[in-house]
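Extended Data, panel c. Modelled sequence:
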Amino acid sequence: MSDTQFEQLVRRLETYAQKHPTQYKLKVALVAALGYAYVLAVLGLTLGVGAWLMLSLKDGGSSHLSSIKLLFGLGILAAIILRAFWVRFTPPTGYEVYREDAPRLFLLIDKLTTALGTPPFHHVLIVNDLNAAVAQRPRLGIFGWYQNYLLLGLPLMLAMAPAQFRTVLAHEFGHLGHHHGRFSGWIYRTRMVWSRLLEELRARDHWGSLLFTKFLDWYAPFFNAYSFVLARAQEYEADRQAARLVGPHAMKDALASLQVIARLMDELYWPALNRRTITNPTPPASHLDELITVLQRVTPQDSIQKWMHEAMQQTTNYADTHPALADRLAALDQLPEKPNAPEPPADFPHLRDPHEATAANYYLDAHATATREALDRRWAESVTDEWQQKHEEMAAARARCQALSDKSATGGLSIEELWEYACQMEALESDRAALPLLQQLLMKAPTHAAANLAMGRLLLAQNDQAGLLYLEKALAQDRETVIPACQLASSFLERQGNHTASLRYRVKAQRQRQQLLDAEAERSTIKPGDSFEPHGLPTEVVEDLARQLASKPDVQAAYLVRKKVQVLTNVPCYALVIIPHRAWYELDTEGSNQALLEKLRTMLTLPEDTYILIADQLMKHRWINTLKAIPQSAILSTHTTAS
């Protein structure tokens, strides 16, 4: 299902749900039940046939050997089905805290659990995210028996005051509370399970998984569209339930504060931390202490208002079930304020005063330091290798920049050198350091797509609308820049409140993405009706590829042709068709072909726009004469092998 088809279906369902809420829920339930029915039907059919065969053997049927073979195969298939759907969902990880460690935190959890009807949590984990979340791990795969996790982001607890954190937590508890209803809760969990299940099955190499990945490739987007409206309604409902406890204004303040804190980290904290890779070969002992330093500074009010203005310009879309901030605040405005509620402060959002206690210190109390140290250690261990690699890259970039600077002072730089210089200066210094170099490059090469994309990105980051002109030049020159250029333009225009123009770029990106998906599907397979022609590649390229293939004993023969395509016709499609060498007794040819494909993808140096296709037995007999008839197609003759 394409993005456009998904959005159109969700729009129709939104309208239908408003007019016929009961019938809509019934349809969602039927679609949800379809997934379970498919699993049980395939498993039931397999077991039923197996039972029939066992009875036939017991009654003394004549075809004992063939029946036993079929029964053995059905047993394997049943095991694959059960294994595929008895997925072991990886439990969330984090620093676990217990009631004796943080009594205030667990008292808050108890109060919210009672007030919102949330099931008890089996584990409370402190994690390294600017977020709070509830997670359910089904111990029996799609059949449930959930283990409940509460994930609390320590950066969030360090950034927020206790009251704000309590409000965010109330929203998350609302997702599992009884106010959602059993049906909504079931759909909420089913959405997560099918999504995770599809990821798990795609990662499997066994051929039996194909029984379900094909079905789920169709079913998961379809179910996601049908339940999307309900999932979005649950976000509004979780906001309402939290507001019932803490008051609508407190809920609005917490939502707005989250937006500002996220921008504060994006604008100040992460850039400062990344710049340390330039001078320091190892990560800091405590990145959370550095976050505290950033949060203790008083954020200028004009920055807060600018970030809030941009956040309020965002519109609700169909890429995420979470509504936009403006829509969430508008929904909360319709709720009555709590009786005797204090007058809201004049500044909105009300960020935590640097002298005010953090939620981390208040709720974790004496355990706050130990928690922070544990997360700091885990973070440092997880990023050490990446940090070291980044430091080495920065050192090399610094040396290269100096060499390019020296060369620029004594003579001119080529287009490629100017582009490299601009990229390195942006990484080492700042956006502003790269701009003059990009301007110099574009004076020499106005159609340089990557430079136009970079110039547009940097100008839009400074709220300079001239960046749109550079993005237009980029996407006109290179198809690879269409999606990133459209995404940049759409985000900028959305922040400016120009939703109509933003939508045009979003639609253009969707069309390009769909075209690329269609092109990939067309180019990665061979089917009846496909036409081929000579590849037309240089002799030295073909000879080099033939030498690489000659060293692969599991490649029997290879043909290189150019496939005639219907999508992106101006981009060539070279098909390298591999005839694998297979022993007569090999059964799992599909698994062997996939393994060979992955090996060749990593080991071969291929011409651009070349797709590797491994011929199975059916394809081999159907296409071999067609491929042989194309001039210069055979680049590797059949290997002679000992019998």
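The longest helix spans residues 368-410. This feature is highlighted in the accompanying rendering.
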